[in-house]
Each structure stands twice: as structure tokens, then as C-alpha cells.
Write a structure and sequence with these properties.
The protein is mainly alpha-helical and 147 residues long. Helices cover 78% and strands 0% of the residues. It is built from five helices and no strands. It has helices at 3-18, 20-33, 41-45, 54-68, 73-137. Helix 1 packs antiparallel against helix 2 (20-33). The mean pLDDT is 80.
């Protein structure tokens, strides 16, 4: 910031402390002193003309707040409430996902048990059939299993 713009800036705030009419009178000097290479700060913060509508002033105030990073309390509380509602929905969704996964695991567990049971039965039947063949041919050394 150049010394000239700095002087205009401090002068503006000194006048602004005296009241709105003094600030309005000091504003053109600040705009004129502001270096163009430092951006369009003053033009972005220039209030609407005197005869402007309430909506124009409201829009100007909101733009000023946004430029300074100010969040009105009402908007903050609304955002906080929305955040809490989303957090609650997320928690409910996570619980639903866990419940569905456990149900799916239980169903898969039952299917797995059926498959393993069928496989065990098939293996036992195969071994029994092999023992019968071995006994029939007289090659089974251990006949206790068949008897």
C-alpha cells in the first residue's frame, strides 16, 4: 500500500468514527488515492447512491461482509443446524449399512453352511463308496470303518 493510499485509508477511518456523513464525505478521497494496481477494493466497497433501494443496500452490506469473511449469526446458526442434521443422517445411514451388512453376512453364513454341509456329505458319501469298493475287492486293510 502506498503512503498516499495509507494516509487516505487512515483518514477515512478517522472520519468514519465521527459518523456516517463524515465517512461518506471521506470516501471519495480514499477511492481517488487507492492505487489501481492493488485491485478494485474501493469500487467493490462503494455504497449504493443515496436514492438506492433498501435491497441495493442490503446487497451491498452482504457483499461487504462476504469480502471481509463475515458470516451473519443467523446464517451461521442455520449452517450449524444443517450440519447437525446431515451428521445425524450420516450416523443413521452408517447404522443402516452396518445392519444390512450383518444381515447379509448372516444370510451368506447360512448359504455357506449349506454349501459346506453339502460338500461334507458328498465327501463322506465318496469315502463310503471307496471303502465299499476296497472291501469288495478285498484290498481294505482297515475294515473297522465299514463294520
Amino acid at each position: 500500500m502506498s503512503p498516499n493510499s495509507w494516509q487516505a485509508w487512515t483518514k477515512f477511518w478517522q472520519e468514519a468514527a465521527k459518523g456516517p456523513s463524515a465517512a461518506a464525505a471521506a470516501w471519495p478521497a480514499l477511492v481517488a488515492a487507492w492505487p489501481r494496481d492493488e485491485g478494485a477494493f474501493p469500487s467493490g466497497f462503494t455504497p449504493p447512491p443515496t436514492g438506492a433501494s433498501v435491497q441495493d443496500y442490503r446487497q451491498w452490506v452482504e457483499q461487504s461482509w462476504a469480502a471481509w469473511g463475515v458470516v451473519p449469526r443467523q446464517q451461521y446458526l442455520e449452517a450449524l443446524a444443517q450440519n447437525e442434521a446431515l451428521r445425524q443422517r450420516l450416523t443413521e445411514a452408517e447404522q443402516t449399512i452396518e445392519r444390512l451388512q450383518s444381515m447379509l453376512a448372516a444370510e451368506r453364513g447360512a448359504e455357506v453352511e449349506k454349501v459346506v454341509g453339502a460338500w461334507q456329505t458328498a465327501v463322506q458319501d465318496t469315502l463310503a463308496a471307496q471303502n465299499q469298493w476296497l472291501n469288495m475287492w478285498g484290498l481294505n486293510k482297515d475294515k473297522k470303518q465299514d463294520e
